[in-house]
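User: Is it possible to get a 3D structure for a protein together with its bound compound? The compound here is flavin-adenine dinucleotide. I've pasted both below.
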Amino acid sequence: MSKVINPVYDVAVIGAGIVGSAIARQLGEYNLNVVLVDSRSDVGDGTSKANTAILHTGFDAKPGTLESRLVSRGYTLLSEYAKATGIPVEPTGAILVAWDKEQLDVLPSLKKKAEENGYKKTEIVDEAYVYHHVPDLGPGVLGGLTVPGESIICTWTTNLALATEAVLRGVELKLGHKITSVEKGLSHTTLKSDAGEIQAKLIINAAGLGGDYIDQMFGYDRFHITPRRGELIVYDKQARPLVKKIVLPVPTALGKGVLVS
Ligand SMILES: Cc1cc2nc3c(=O)[nH]c(=O)nc-3n(C[C@H](O)[C@H](O)[C@H](O)COP(=O)(O)OP(=O)(O)OC[C@H]3O[C@@H](n4cnc5c(N)ncnc54)[C@H](O)[C@@H]3O)c2cc1C
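Assistant: Yes, that's possible. Here is the predicted structure of the complex:
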């Protein structure tokens, strides 16, 4: 009986976060030999498990960008996928809150931006509306912008569902394989890790914050990721009635700011 040692896969996807797992699941539909590789001991153990869990409409993306197109398409696809698979989603809606005159003046441009992104359901509301829906906000609210389509989605279940379906479709999952270097050949590439080598004809870089290192391993220097560390404060379920909607600040040049979900 012959034993296949180190098969040459058609495709190796590096990174089993939400992006790599979704790609692997999709590739599993085709007659391809696919491997999904991650350095961690479980899927979704990078950024994908520890985010704010908002299923974004894409209302605040920069119009006309790839991000805007993908977030808006992802919203539709993930909403359908969640319904089909039972991934928990809470359609809470969001309110973006203005706390001073400057922020209040920005609301019309945010509404316009949402419309340019194809999301036409936002509304500018007064402070009474905001306090009616989030009565426990502190004093000083001047107004807000509603984004009724924003929802909360279970990030763990989503990543697990995508990776599990990938495996059920024949994708091989290799955890605990940190790719440290690559060797490019004529017919295939060898990925080297402390847990062994993986050979594949095509490599997909879905390594998230490690994506630029993988790019460099292939001899490129096309992009650099400068991550900023965020901080999440997780409250007990008893605090849930305090905030029934996602509460967003007016974004600044540095990011989306402190939000409550
Ligand atoms: C604080 C915060 C809040 C956020 N909130 C939201 C939100 O509410 N809604 C939303 O849609 N998005 C949100 N995001 C963004 C979202 O979490 C990310 O866009 C998404 O998780 C990225 O997924 P990914 O698969 O690209 O990366 P990751 O989940 O990080 O996956 C990359 C994987 O690659 C693996 N890897 C890296 N290098 C190597 C290597 N050399 N060898 C093997 N494996 C490797 C890592 O172990 C990791 O598992 C938030 C992000 C942050 C930081």
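Residues 54-153+228-249 form a domain with the D-Amino Acid Oxidase; Chain A, domain 2 fold (CATH 3.30.9). The pocket of flavin-adenine dinucleotide is lined by residues 14-20, 37-40, 45-48, 51-54, 56, 178-179, 206-210, 214, 230 (CB under 6 Å).
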